[in-house]
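To fix ideas, we give here one paired sequence and structure record:
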Amino acid sequence: MSSDQLHPARQIAARLAAENRALRERVADLEALIVRLSEENEALESARPSDLVEPIENMQPV
């Protein structure tokens, strides 16, 4: 028998640790995305309509 078969708790702990690392990385990615989108939103809110790339009239469906 391998040592992993003798210690299923070690397997579970290793799997949980890996999942925890992956989740922490995902949370960090999402937090960075929130910061970036907040900055973009603030820039758009402070822009004058003439500063926008495309007037709203041009963004309407045809």
The chain has a mean pLDDT of 85. Residues 39 and 45 are 10 Å apart (CA to CA). Residues 8-46 form the longest helix (39 residues). DSSP finds two helices and no strands in the chain.
